[in-house]
C-alpha cells in the first residue's frame, strides 16, 4: 500500500515539474527589453525644395542661313567644328548671280550713255529756246528726257549694288565664335530662300555655359524666384550633382494633358564639358534655404512613450500618470494652438524621460528647425527597438511569428510610440 502511495506521489511531482518546464519554456511571456533611439540636435542647413524635369540647352544658339538661293558648292566645317567669328563656313555656286551682275552692269553703261546724250540735247535745246528758235513744249520735252535719263542711271546703280550684295552672300560666314552643333546641308544640295531662310548650320556660342529649361508645375511655380539655388542630375552621370541658379521664370504657360507648366531657366556652369545639349535633367529647386540653424528629425516630434517605454524607463511628464501608464491623459494635455510649437521627449540622467516643448521653424517633412527649447547636448528620442535578452543587439525575429504591437514611425523607419506633436 505504501509503495502505491509512493508511486502516486512520484507521478504527481513529475507532473508538476513537467507543467513547470512547459510553462517556463513555452508559455511564460518573455519580458521585452527595448533600446531607445536618440539623436542630438545638430547645426546645419535645412531647406524646402521642389522637383521638376527639363532639358539642357546652350545659353545662346545661332541658326546660320542663306539669303540667296543656289547650289552648295563647298562646305568648310562639319559637326562639332570650332569656328571663329567671320570664318568662311560654306559657299554657294556664284555663277548665276555673277551673270546677273554682269547684265545689270551692262544696263548701267547703257543708261549712262543715254544720260550723256540727253544732257547734250538738253543744253542744245536750251540755247535754241533762249533765242526763240524752238517752242516751250520742245524745251520741256528735252528737260523731261534728261531727268528720266538721270533717274534711270540711279535705278540701275541700285540694281547693280543689290546684285553685288547677292553675289557676296554666296559666301556664308560665321557670325559668332562657337561650336557647330548641326549641319543641315551637303555639297551639291540646292537651297531656296524664296519664302523663308533655310538653316544651314546651328552654332552654339559657348558650351562651357549651359542652361536647363525646367518645366515647373503650376502648383509649385508660386515658390520659384529668380536667384534661387538649384541642383540637377543627368542620366549620363547619375552619381554626380550639378549646381545651377534660377535666372528666369517665363510667364508663358504650356499645357500638356490638362497640366499647366511654366518654363523656368536655370543657368549652370559646364567648364568640364560633361553636359551635352539635349540631355534630360532631373532638377531640384531650393525654394527656401536656412543655413546654420538647429534641426532635428521630424520623427522626434511624433514620438510618444507607450506602455513598453513606461515599463523600461521612468517617464517624467505632466501628460503621464506614474510608471504604469504610457497613455496621455487628455484632461492634462495642453493642446498646441500654435503651429510653430511642438513637443519632443529627451532622455536624461538615470534614464529619466522628460517631455520638452519647443518652438519650430522650417519643416521639410524630413527635418525640422528648432528655434528654441533644446540644447546641443539634449538626447532627443526618435523611436525605439526591441532587443533580445541574450544579446545587446536587435533580436532576430521570424517573419512567420506574430509581432508585438508597438507604435511606429514612418518617417525614419524605427519603432517607437506615436502621438501628436
Automatic annotation (TrEMBL):
The chain crosses the membrane at residues 9-27. Residues 386-421 are annotated as: Disordered. InterPro entries: Beta-barrel_YknX, MdtA-like_BSH, MdtA-like_C, MdtA-like_HH, RND_pump_MFP. It comes from the Bacteria. Residues 101-169 form the Multidrug resistance protein MdtA-like alpha-helical hairpin domain. Keywords: Membrane, Transmembrane, Transmembrane helix, Transport. Residues 210-285 form the YknX-like beta-barrel domain. Its main location: other. The keyword Transcription regulation does not apply. NCBIfam families: RND_mfp (TIGR01730). Belongs to the membrane fusion protein (MFP) (TC 8.A.1) family. This is Efflux RND transporter periplasmic adaptor subunit. It comes from Chryseobacterium paridis. The lineage of its organism: Bacteria, Pseudomonadati, Bacteroidota, Flavobacteriia, Flavobacteriales.
